[in-house]
Automatic annotation (TrEMBL):
Region described as Disordered: spans on this chain: 1-21
Full protein name: CRAL-TRIO domain-containing protein
SMART domains reported for this sequence: CRAL_TRIO_N, SEC14
GO molecular function, one term: phosphatidylinositol transfer activity
Composition-biased stretches (Basic and acidic residues): 12-21
Comp. bias intervals (Low complexity): 1-11
All residue ranges annotated as the CRAL-TRIO domain in the record: 80-244
PANTHER family: GH16843P, SEC14P-LIKE PHOSPHATIDYLINOSITOL TRANSFER FAMILY PROTEIN
């Protein structure tokens, strides 16, 4: 009974501490408007505080840099038509299934790289991140990554500069959004690349990266504790035979663009898009609701 009271008291104390820090951070950043106001929910403030170990000054600096980045990069205004070419091979997409905790799942296939423009690749990456987060169920803040190394080799390796920018965007502007990242069966030559890349990761992100090898039972069991085997693609050790279909995914993304515009209250760009006659058939296509 004492243990139960003690743990409850600790939880209550922790919640009060979090609320106090969130209130302090809210006061520190001052009044907001527009998309910044929409972005800075209590859950958002909590994520930035967690990322900076509840240090209000450091959290304020981090959040301020994100708000500045979002005001210029405008991630919520990127539309599928602008990045669709990047997704043709299925090198990065939101899976049709969720993990065991209901989180959005991103599948990354670095061996399927099909373009050379880092700027376009990053816009595609940011678009998919925003889409995955908008697809989260109420109360869920994080997503899971599955990285499939099928077809990967040192010759089609992601440039170090691109890897560093990807990590920079994720860590600095999407803090505490990654729950776990499983690297499935990376080839031995990946080890040299990883030795460099891991230095770009902060300790919290580093701990979320898990290597999985088909012959290592413990690593396979760990991954399956996060995902239903029936949902996992065969190339990731699961039983699903589903394959990435670019046309189907495109229809889904265009429908999601409408949801995104409605959420942010920025449908002018979509209205112009439709008025110009682009992808009218796609906009009218039916596809399962994912929100």
């Amino acid at each position: 009974m004492f243990h139960h009271w003690s743990s409850s008291h600790q939880q209550e104390s922790s919640e009060l501490h979090a609320e106090s820090k969130m209130k302090e951070l809210k006061g520190a950043i001052g009044p907001l408007s527009g998309h910044s106001l929409k972005y800075c929910t209590d859950a958002c403030l909590k994520r930035y505080l967690e990322a900076r170990n509840w240090n209000v000054d450091k959290s304020k600096k981090m959040l301020g840099e994100t708000l500045k980045w979002r005001s210029t990069y405008k991630p919520e205004e990127i539309r599928w038509q602008e990045v669709a070419m990047e997704g043709e091979t299925g090198k990065l997409y939101r899976a049709s299934f969720r993990d065991r905790q209901g989180r959005s799942v991103l599948i990354l296939r670095p061996g399927m790289q099909n373009t050379t423009s880092m700027e376009n690749q990053m816009r595609h990456f940011v678009y998919i991140l925003e889409n995955a987060l908008l697809d989260l169920p109420p109360g869920q803040e994080q997503m899971a990554w599955l990285i499939d190394f099928t077809g990967w080799s040192i010759t089609n390796n992601v440039p170090l500069k691109s890897a560093r920018e990807t990590i920079n965007i994720l860590q600095n502007h999407y803090p505490e959004r990654l729950a776990v990242a499983f690297l499935y069966n990376p080839p031995r030559v990946f080890e040299a690349f990883w030795k460099i890349v891991k230095y770009f990761l902060d300790s919290k992100t580093f701990q979320k990266v898990k290597f999985v090898y088909p012959k290592n039972k413990d690593s396979v069991e760990l991954m399956k504790s996060y995902f239903d085997e029936e949902n996992l693609p065969q190339e990731l050790g699961g039983k699903s035979t589903m394959r990435y279909n670019h046309e189907e995914f495109s229809r889904l993304m265009v429908q999601d663009d409408l949801k995104c515009a409605a959420f942010w209250g920025s449908d002018e760009k979509l209205s112009n898009h439709i008025a110009n006659g682009h992808s009218a058939a796609v906009f009218n296509a039916t596809s399962p609701d994912t929100c």
